Recover the amino acids of this structure.
C-alpha cells in the first residue's frame, strides 16, 4: 500500500481527490471484470486504501456503484447532445429524427456494462444506498433528461414535455429489452432445443426497432422546426 494514501485527507481538495480515486478504481475494476460488481475490499485495494476508509466516502458498495452508473449515464447524455448538435448542422430538409433515435440506441447497444449497471439501479443499487445518494442520482438523471429534451425541442416540432417523455421511455425500453435478452446459456439452449427460438431476443435489433417505432408513434414525423417555420411562412404568403 502506497504511503501517501495512508495519510488522512484533511483539506476539502484532498477529500475530493480521495473520492475521485475511489471512483476511478471502482470503474476500472468493473470495466476489467466480467460484468459483476467488484467487492468493496477489491476497490479499496485498487485505490491503495484501507477498506474502512472507503466507507468514509460512500455509505455502501451500492452507493459507490450508483455513482459509477452516473458516470456512464453522463457519457450517454453527452453523446446524445453531440448527435443533436451534428443534426442541427444539416440542412433542415436533410434532418432525420429516425437517424437520431438510432444513434441514441447504438451507443447503449455498444456499452453492455453500462446496461448491466442500469438494470441494477432500482432493485439493487438504490435499495442499498442512502437517501441522499438516491435523491442525488434521481436529480442528476432528471437534469440530464431535461437537457436532452430541451435540445430536441429546439430542433424539432415537439414540446419539451413530449421530448422529456420520449427520452425517459426510450431509456426504459432499452433497459427492459436488455434484461429480457440476457438468458443463461442453459436456458437459451433449452429454448433452442424445444423450438422456442422466437422468444430469444436479438437485443441490438429489438432495441433499435422498439425505440424508432416509439418515436414515430409518440412524435410522428418529428418535423424540423425550421422546415415548419418555412412552411408556415409560405402558407401566409399564399
Amino acid at each position: 500500500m502506497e504511503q501517501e494514501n495512508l495519510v488522512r485527507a484533511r483539506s476539502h481538495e484532498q477529500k475530493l481527490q480521495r473520492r475521485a480515486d475511489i471512483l476511478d478504481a471502482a470503474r476500472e475494476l468493473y470495466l476489467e471484470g466480467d460484468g459483476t460488481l467488484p467487492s468493496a475490499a477489491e476497490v479499496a485495494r485498487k485505490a491503495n486504501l484501507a477498506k474502512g476508509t472507503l466507507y468514509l466516502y460512500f455509505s455502501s458498495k451500492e452507493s459507490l456503484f450508483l455513482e459509477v452508473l452516473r458516470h456512464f449515464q453522463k457519457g450517454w447524455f453527452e453523446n446524445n447532445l453531440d448527435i443533436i448538435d451534428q443534426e442541427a448542422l444539416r440542412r433542415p430538409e436533410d434532418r432525420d429524427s429516425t437517424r437520431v433515435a438510432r444513434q441514441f440506441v447504438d451507443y447503449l447497444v455498444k456499452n453492455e456494462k453500462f446496461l448491466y449497471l442500469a438494470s441494477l439501479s432500482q432493485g439493487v443499487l438504490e435499495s442499498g444506498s442512502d437517501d441522499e445518494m438516491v435523491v442525488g442520482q434521481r436529480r442528476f438523471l432528471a437534469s440530464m433528461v431535461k437537457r436532452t429534451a430541451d435540445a430536441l425541442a429546439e430542433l424539432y416540432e415537439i414540446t419539451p414535455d413530449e421530448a422529456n417523455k420520449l427520452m425517459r421511455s426510450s431509456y426504459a425500453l432499452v433497459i427492459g429489452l436488455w434484461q429480457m435478452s440476457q438468458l443463461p446459456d442453459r436456458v437459451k439452449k433449452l429454448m433452442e432445443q424445444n423450438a422456442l427460438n422466437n422468444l430469444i431476443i436479438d437485443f441490438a435489433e429489438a432495441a433499435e426497432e422498439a425505440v424508432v417505432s416509439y418515436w414515430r408513434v409518440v412524435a410522428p414525423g418529428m418535423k424540423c422546426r425550421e422546415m415548419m417555420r418555412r412552411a408556415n411562412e409560405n402558407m401566409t404568403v399564399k
